[in-house]
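Internal QA ticket QA-208
Title: Verify multi-chain structure generation after dependency bump
Assignee: T.L.

Test input:
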Amino acid sequence: MSDRLEIIRAAINRVRQHKYLPALVAVTAETRLREDAGLDSMDLAEFTVVLEMETGVDVFADSAVRTVGEVQMKLERGKCT
Amino acid sequence: MTPGAEQKPFVVDATGQSLSYRELCARLAADQSFRPVCHARGAAEIFYQVALALSRGRRLLLVDPELKPHELEQLGLDRDAPVEQLASMPIADVAALVEHCRTSEGFELELLTSGSTGLPKRVVHRLAGLTRFLRTSPRHRDDVWGLCYNPTHIAGVQVFLQAFLNANAMIDLFGQSPATIQQRIVGHGVTHLSATPTFYRLLLADVREPLPQVRAITLGGEASDPALHARLREVFPNARITNLYASTEAGTLFASDGDTFFPAEGIAKLIAIEQGTLRLHRSLLGEFHGATDASEWYDTGDKVEIVTTEPLRFRFVGRDRDWINLGGEKVNPQEVEAQLLQFPGVTAARVFGRKNSVVGQILCAEVVATGVREETALRDFLAARLHAIKVPRLISFVSALPSSRTGKLLRS
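Actual output:
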């Protein structure tokens, strides 16, 4: 479980780095992708692609994800594109 | 014009502030200086300048404030244009202002767009070319428009004209989060929306309940799909849904209520479909500065399939060009590749779009480079020279690039 959290955190921070934002030190299931992680729509697209490249799962495939927790659930379910 | 028209807000910005139409009239009447090149930020100020140009019959060039100095230089826009003096102009009331602007002669609007060679180009439009589908009537008196496009682009300007020439309130929604957009649609009583399919997909992904007060929705800028239309009908149960086709070069040309398009009144004879490609007669186009192509018919690069010939109805089935459509903004990959090749150590580059579920496409690049393995410096280099949307989101370093049998760079 915490490995997935790390993967998600790393993907968020990769996008944040591209926007010259400091890395988030920690994320929890409640962390909201837009309001807390500071991602806008284009950032979410990049985040989704990065996660898909690493895990094979498209977390935005059938529905939006708003929090880290929702991303985790999608990764666990392992929906492939 | 009913009582209350004067109090109606002109453009409500992200903070909720706005001039009333009465205040707009006063400001326009008294304004004694006109900047022919508009670098302003935000729909409220940009559209004030367009209203000023309309009221005084002047030519105005709209510049996207996100363009970088390098790009402005290429367009010859790095030097300030001299400010023009205006005489004050009496405006009796909102009705008089709108009537005057509706027939504004001398008004010209200049827009910027990527050229086919990668160099940006300037296109000049007169009012007639910008108002083909525009309807002014008492029926539109109480429309409230959501502004969802970049105000310096053709689609944004067309929405502005439809709203302004009916003295409608406009609510700026461009660049805001889906949650905020929803709140503002409800809070300001928006009845009309015009936006890209990407905008709607993002909004729908976040929407909690239907929005029944919206009466009309138009889509443009990108290919749409039936699944999106079905979801739009669920969330906007009282809205008529129309697709529009517009380009910076020609303004709005076609409308459809499904996926079959028909031309605006009077222009059917100015459309040609040859070998499945859509061509436009040059009289439909705005003027291009320094146009070297003197041919009578302009190749749009859009592939179409004819459904009926009398009356003309057709479907769009794809694009000829390499350009990448990022949620309505078109990026020429060659322009980005040219910049990548300027970075020391880069010997080859391929820029392409990658489909994803969030925004349609994101911009990616594969780069062959010696001695460069760090993305950050490369990305900083591009960010300093190009509009943010042209900076690839994902850059990977590869040892070689794929090419076709004829040696041309493969992009898809």
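Spot checks passed. Residues 2-18 of chain A form the longest helix (17 residues).
Status: verified.
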